[in-house]
């Protein structure tokens, strides 16, 4: 019985993740990439702010480094020049 409960839980998680990914993909496809900072107001970063923060993190903490994303995780509308 425990194995069945675990399988059901895994299936529920998979459905939730796939649903969330579909919603996120739909949102990203219709919303423009932000170019004006809303960090103070909403806590969100523009692409440039994200890159600057990442550069500062890499500079301050040598254990951190930039890496390419896998094609599955890569957001094609962002960072085209970095691919």
Mind explaining what this structure looks like?
- The protein is an all-alpha fold.
- Helix content is 57%, strand content 0%.
- The protein has two domains: 1-31; 33-68 and 77-83, no CATH class.
- It is extended and about 50 Å long.
If helices are DSSP runs of H or I spanning 4 or more residues, what is the number of helices?
3
Overall 3D shape: extended
Number of strands: 0
Please indicate the count of domains. Answer: 2
Spans of at least 5 consecutive residues with low confidence: none
Label the structural class.
mainly alpha
- Helicity, in percent? 55-70%
The helix/strand order is: HHH
Strand proportion, as a percent range, falls in under 5%
**Mean pLDDT across every amino acid position:** 83
Largest sheet: none
Radius of gyration: 18 Å
How far from one another are the termini? 47 Å
Notable traits:
3 helices, 2 domains, mainly alpha, 83 residues, 57% helix
């Amino acid at each position: 019985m425990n194995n069945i409960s675990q399988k059901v839980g895994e299936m529920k998680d998979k459905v939730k993740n796939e649903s969330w990914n579909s919603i996120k993909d739909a949102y990203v496809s219709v919303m423009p990439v932000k170019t004006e900072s809303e960090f103070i107001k909403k806590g969100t970063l523009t692409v440039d702010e994200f890159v600057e923060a990442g550069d500062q993190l890499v500079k301050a903490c040598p254990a951190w480094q930039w890496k390419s994303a896998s094609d599955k995780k890569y957001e094609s509308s962002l960072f085209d020049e970095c691919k």
